[in-house]
Amino acid sequence: MFPPNGSLLLLLFLFVIASMTSRVTARSSLDTLLPLEDKYQTTKSWIDSEDPFSNGQLLGSDAQEKRRQELYGHLFGRLSPWNQDYVQTLLTGDLRGEEDQRFVDFSKAGTYYGEDSASAIPYPQEWLSSIKENSNLSELNSLKYDATRRGITTKNLAARLLPTDQHAFENPLLPGEGDTFDYLQMSAVWVGTPVYILAETRDRVWDLVLTPDFIAWVKSEGIALTDENFLQDWSAAASKKLVAITKTATPLQKEQGELLSLAYVGACFPQGHSASTIMVPNADQDHHAKMEEISMDPQAIAPIPLSLTPHHMADIMETLIGRPYGWGGMDFNNDCSAELKNLFLPFGIYLPRHSSDQMAVGQVIDKSADSYEDRLSYLVDYGKPFLSLIYIGKYPGEDPKYYSVLDDTSHQPLLAMTYQNLWGLRPASGTPRRAIIGRATFFPLLLEYPEDNTLLSLANRSLFQISDLSQFPSQDFLSRTPAASSILGLSKKEALSTHLKSLMSPEDRGAF
């Protein structure tokens, strides 16, 4: 599809945040597959590991250390679910009102279908009412901080908008819709994640939890309670050395062969007593947390922060590329923003879960008013290798010295390559439909796509912003986070409300 020019040894990697539509198994007749050349869907097609550029440091040590401190702050510091001041601040907000609003918003959003969506039989109104009754929302009326509600996940968990395993699909006859786009699926929570339990359903199957990234319902069986001894030991070990998973779906296996869980890129654990071991949380018979030390393949882990070089980034991308698009982390696959969040974590860079929030982590330049050509010119002139995010789309591009790597008949003056987990593209106008990609992929930012010139270009959407992660916003991280600002006495009640809405609302993943 876009064969590499033989002279291209360097690839400028920039990353774009995109809003995506759902993925689907039972496709509408208006859905088609957009073919990609498989031989160009490997990092080796684009990165020469022997070129000096591939081993060059892309982020200065001071900046990387500051990013690492932000990450630790969310996991174990002032923005952690284990931090009493932070949790107490959140508990002063209207959690009951926000959870009520979830039900209201969901009921107004449209008609939903269950597993048998092909029969076009929607859920009755009583379906949502029964879920709300089980939610026991009165428990949120007068919350007080309780240290015994701190916990840690002992398995990977689906984070749900409401406490149910039942799926909520839109009409499968609509373009881009079908039996794997569950609108109750919010995200995924990796094993080893600190949480605070806010509420429990009447049937005691689900917990409403605060994670470092959002508030969602998860299965209670996947959470172990943490006492002070565990918290101190876990946090001390993590402060000494935190280790990231660099090969996705890596088994966490005890010496006796017992499989505790799988670990995905984006998960992290304290290092054990040697460089090849990690500490993993497990639950005892009373469902209290205990630490297990397990041996790991040295190639599947790396100390945080891993030096940010094109070569190291390519190594991690190699374990992610080609994996299916996973709406809201469905089946523990990534959607657009989760791909970026998990990809950057081994380098000690914390990205929030939502696309719009991810942009605020760097310095933002708005190019929405510019032409397609001017947008690409800005990218190749000022884009930072591996450190630029774009809203909306996802993007690695080529070195600005070179022209398009497409054939000579394409007449493309510039090519900006993208790396993203992309569901699909919609037409610029006309009949609603989807051209489906549905996986993590390399993809070019072209004004027109040779396979189908009616599709809307990712580079030609109305909103086009660039965030430079090598630079920091004007405010420090705590000051620009509303709930943390409350702790510091810097914000108003309205700021806390805004922060709660961000934690409790699913990302706006509009249809491509």
Protein model, in words:
This protein is 23% helix and 21% strand. With 512 residues, the protein is α+β, with helices and mostly antiparallel strands. It has helices spanning 61-75, 84-91, 95-109, 125-135, 228-240, 310-320, 336-344, 355-359, 372-382, 482-487, 493-504; strands spanning 11-12, 15-17, 31-33, 150-153, 157-160, 185-189, 194-200, 206-210, 215-219, 223-225, 242-245, 250-253, 259-263, 268-270, 277-283, 289-295, 301-303, 363-366, 388-391, 397-398, 416-425, 434-445, 465-468. The chain folds into 3 domains: 11-19 and 32-59 and 308-473, endopeptidase fold (from Nostoc punctiforme) (Alpha-Beta Complex), CATH 3.90.1720.10; 72-226, SH3 type barrels (Roll), CATH 2.30.30.40; 230-303. Residues 1-27, 392-413, 482-490 and 508-512 have low confidence and may be disordered.
Search tags:
endopeptidase fold (from Nostoc punctiforme), five-stranded antiparallel β-sheet, alpha+beta, disordered C terminus, 3 domains, SH3 type barrels, 23 strands, 21% strand
Main β-sheet, spatial strand arrangement: 9-8-7-4-10
Oligomer: single chain
Strand content: 15-25%
Tally the structural domains: 3
Mean pLDDT across all amino acids: 82
Indicate the structural class.
Answer: alpha+beta
Sheet of most strands: 5 strands, antiparallel
Share of residues in helices: 10-25%
Shape: globular
Q: What's the CATH H-level superfamily name of the largest domain?
A: endopeptidase domain like (from Nostoc punctiforme)
**CATH class assignment of the largest domain:** Alpha Beta
